[in-house]
Design brief:
The protein has a four-stranded antiparallel β-sheet, with helices on both faces. The model has no long low-confidence stretch (mean pLDDT about 95). The chain has a single domain, classed as NADH Oxidase (3-Layer(aba) Sandwich), CATH 3.40.109. The relative contact order is 0.23. The chain is α+β, with helices and mostly antiparallel strands. It is built from seven helices and four strands, in the order ααβααβαβαβα. It is globular, with a radius of gyration of 17 Å.
């Protein structure tokens, strides 16, 4: 039987990891992370996103350079790139599907992958600072596919302290 991870503990304990140990990820772990991403909700259940799996040293190095020399991307044994795929949502939702829903779909899938990796004891960090065209080129994505987030996954090589968060009173606004 699998260990059950409390979601609220998982959300509280998740950290952004920017240093990874040289330990490979088990294929079963990667499969579970990808399955969690596949289970993410999406607009109209269209799953208007693509996931690119980067394992090779050269692709991870290209992604690191595309992300402004964020070299920790080369340390992680697996890097996932989540891309919006507007052509999947545009026929049903038009402009809103092309500009928003496909981006939301990709970000929700990335979040599910990040939380699944954390539940499996792996480290991740959401990378959003990058040159989209350079990322698209590095992963050989077709024209029209838009990189949204890069998610390196590996065994954490650091244990960051919790970051300060806004209070819910500052964050949440009740409507009348």
């Amino acid at each position: 039987m699998e260990a059950v991870v409390d979601f609220f503990d998982l959300a509280r304990d998740r950290r952004s990891i920017r240093a990874f140990r040289e330990i490979p990820i088990e294929p079963e772990q990667l499969e579970r992370v990808l399955e969690a991403a596949n289970r993410a909700p999406s607009a109209g259940n269209l799953q208007a996103y693509q996931i690119y799996l980067a394992k090779s040293d050269s692709t991870r190095a290209q992604l690191a350079q595309a992300a402004g020399a964020q070299d920790f991307l080369t340390q992680a044994p697996v890097v996932l790139v989540f891309c919006a795929d507007p052509k999947r949502s545009t026929p049903r939702y038009g402009r809103r599907g092309a500009e928003l829903y496909c981006v939301q779909d990709a970000t929700i899938a990335c979040t599910f992958a990040m939380l699944a990796a954390t539940a499996l004891g792996l480290g991740t960090v959401w990378v959003g600072a990058f040159d989209a065209e350079s990322v698209r080129s590095a992963i050989n994505a077709p024209e029209g596919v838009v990189p949204v987030a890069i998610l390196p996954i590996g065994h954490a090589g650091e244990t960051p302290l919790p970051t300060r968060r806004r209070s819910s009173r500052d964050l949440v606004h009740e409507t009348r």
